[in-house]
Design a protein that fits this description.
binds zinc ion, 9 strands, 6-stranded parallel beta sheet, binds ligand BV8, Rossmann fold, alpha/beta, 3-stranded antiparallel beta sheet, 254 residues
Length: 254
Amino acid sequence: METLDELAERAARLILKARGETVAFTGAGVSAESGVPTFRGRDGLWKRFRPEELATPEAFERNPRLVWEWYRWRMEIIARARPNPAHLALAELEKLGLLRCVITQNVDGLHREAGQQCLVELHGNIWRARCTKCGHRVVFREPPREIPPRCPRCGALLRPDVVWFGEPLPEQEWRQALQLAREARVLLVIGTSGVVYPAALIPTIAKENGAKIIEINIEKTPITSIADIHIEAPAGKAIQKILEKIKQITRTPI
Ligand code: BV8
Ligand code: ZN
């Protein structure tokens, strides 16, 4: 059984060998250490709420106030959250020229706040809302006081600018994610249960195109079976360790 140290060393060597063609694919687990609840974990959102009742167009149609109460509650948690060592290490890997881009399923905006430049938000962003009638978009600086919020332009209902179950992913972001997955030499899969489609196809597409898969998660997932390296540790600890190994290896010329 390899130690975290040995696994991180192997991962660091794969990332260095990829010469910048490494892409990260992240899920709710990368924000867990920031105090943002995941969906399916022990204290997961889906434990207390049922996604069908909230994260769907039908739920919004039926009860926009209830859906906005849920999103405002999540915005309040996220407003207090700060990027954690996992987000910061990914931003540093990008600065070092070793990470090309981050594809995220998260809507919390923490990768951006950590300084990530190249970022593809497959499921939208909780701080953005769009008008259900005229399409006008707004960005919230803080959770909306009155809910459901109304369009400043036409007065119709605003909806969170996130992808709900049964809704297609944004065209542009999906195409960009596919291209990044096809071209990646290494895919870092961090903190995702790999159960939500079509996002969950990304690791398979990267693998089919010859990428090495490094999975970081506190448990095994359906992705573990195609992972070349599976590091069972919290994301912050694991990615910081990989970053440390990269710096050690590049400091000591071979
Ligand atoms: C679509 C935005 C069609 C909103 C989200 C049956 C089979 C296959 C597919 C389907 C099916 N039935 C329905 C579908 C389709 C459905 C789907 O996949 N359902 C699943 C549940 C079976 N998909 C859709 O509906 C998609 N749209 O298919 O449209 C279409 C196509 C064309 C034209 C018209 C229509 C839309 C899916 C997007 C839904 N939106 N979020 C919001 O956030 O409110 S999904 C939601 O789940 C989040 O975005 C989240 O990111 C995503 C995935 O979850 P994870 O990120 O993986 O988080 P999770 O909690 O699950 O796991 C956390 C992981 O982290 C765990 O593994 C845990 O161990 C780990 N972890 C925890 N702590 C740490 C850690 N790891 C490391 N360190 C730690 N500290
Ligand atoms: Zn409007």
